[in-house]
Design a protein that fits this description.
lysine biosynthesis; decarboxylase; TIM Barrel; Lyase, Ornithine Decarboxylase, Chain A, domain 1; De-COase2_C; about 400 residues; EC 4.1.1.20
């Protein structure tokens, strides 16, 4: 997509608006699948990153499966036409009833705690189950997205393996996969390689495995010249280790990954209009027609999103703090160098494909924006902008009547 294309989208669909480039998603998928030369590679897109049904249908058309964390995400995948056998369900802290509901839908169950494992195995020993282990590896670009360390709520500790094996033996359940996920924004491929050895060792305890799931967490670039996970190097090194393990194990297994951000982050742009330029004694603020109700990552994770003034790209750069319209601290960028901004200009936020719309809310009773997919040179609306009716649709309104005698006035 060119800046001209983005301006046309903002003109046609209004702002703020999310725009996703299908070609970038496709190229990221092809890059990932080309990096691993194994007997069977399974890619399951992490639905929580961006769950629009049209995006799921695009993933399905590429041959990509889905990684889900809720029964609702499983149902979205089925709605998009994804075969349930290509959906893995990895919840955390959900009820046994929800897991059983998903099992009935045919998705691959992945269990990450001993209590639920024992309960599910006792009631459904015939249903194949994957086990999520916690390798006790600290990884990720932020403490809030590191999920494989010893204090994490995710996974079954590798030190609980004897207990885990007793449950499997006592229930007679069938374990067909082993899974781990250490965190997001992992740059050092050594983390993956180290954790893989832990996963291989754990896998030796199970004789009927069909796949090993390495989760994801690949780092994407957030600014020009930024570093990212070297997928090709990881692919070459992990392929060797995986092939060696399969030979020792006695049969070929599928190598599985669950990328979300890697596939859609760079494909997304978020467009917002500048409402006001406000000069204070120390700062120039560019106030835009959105806030952390639509893009919370900078406030939640301290994440960086490049911001470009696509309405005035050739102008001299000045320093601005880009802020939203929410009545709390709502800063997207502080003292950021951007081409001169005028009221009415359109700003484009990069890396807006992952965990942006999916974490949006109606805070301040604002409408959630429209979503547009740029596909084969054309803009396709894939979600309408919300309206006032959407805010009130599920509210049950009570009727209050008061009379003078109901009022008590104290002197």
């Amino acid at each position: 997509m060119t800046q001209k294309d983005l301006l046309a989208v903002a003109e046609e669909f209004g702002s703020p608006v999310y725009v996703y480039d299908a070609e970038k998603i496709i190229s990221q998928y092809k890059r990932l699948t080309s990096a691993f030369k194994v007997n069977e590679l399974r890619i399951h897109y992490a639905v929580k990153a961006l769950s629009n049904i049209s995006i799921l249908k695009l993933m399905n058309s590429l041959g990509c499966g889905l990684d889900t964390v809720s029964v609702q995400e499983v149902r979205l995948g089925l709605e998009a036409g994804v075969d349930p056998s290509k959906i893995i369900y990895t919840p955390n802290g959900v009820s046994l009833e929800e897991i059983e509901e998903v099992a009935k839908l045919g998705a691959q169950i992945n269990i990450d705690n001993l209590s639920i494992l024992e309960q599910f195995g006792s009631r459904h020993p015939e249903t194949p189950v994957c086990i999520r282990i916690n390798p006790h590896v600290m990884a990720g670009g932020n403490s809030k997205i590191s999920v494989g360390h010893i204090d994490s709520k995710f996974g079954i500790s590798i030190h609980q393996m004897p207990h885990l094996l007793r449950i499997v033996e006592n229930t007679g359940m069938h374990i067909n996969g082993i899974h781990m996920h250490t965190g997001s924004d992992i740059l050092d491929i050594g983390v993956f390689l180290h954790a893989s050895e832990i996963l291989f060792e754990a896998a030796k305890n199970f004789k009927e495995l069909e796949f090993l799931d390495f989760g994801s967490g690949f780092k994407v670039p957030y600014r020009e010249g930024d570093i990212e996970t070297d997928i090709e190097d990881l692919g070459a090194q992990l392929t060797k280790k995986f092939d060696k393990f399969c030979k020792e194990y006695g049969r070929e297994l599928a190598l599985t990954f669950e990328p979300g951000k890697y596939l859609v982050s760079e494909a997304g742009k978020f467009l917002a209009k500048v409402n006001v330029i406000k000069q204070t004694t120390s700062t120039v603020f560019a106030g835009i027609d959105t806030g952390f109700n639509h893009l919370i990552r900078p406030m939640f994770y301290g994440s960086h999103h490049d911001i470009k003034n696509i309405s005035n790209p050739s102008a001299k750069a000045r320093f601005y703090s880009v802020v939203g319209y929410i009545c709390e601290t709502d800063t997207f960028a502080s003292n950021r160098r951007i081409s001169e901004i005028r009221e009415g200009d359109i700003l484009s936020f990069s890396n807006a494909g992952a965990y942006c719309f999916s974490m949006a809310s109606n805070f301040n009773s604002r409408y959630r924006p429209a979503e547009v997919l740029w596909y084969k040179g054309k803009a396709h609306l894939i979600r309408e902008r919300e309206s006032f009716e959407d805010l009130t649709r599920h509210q049950v309104v009570m009727d209050f009547k008061s009379t003078e005698k109901d009022l008590v006035i104290k002197e």
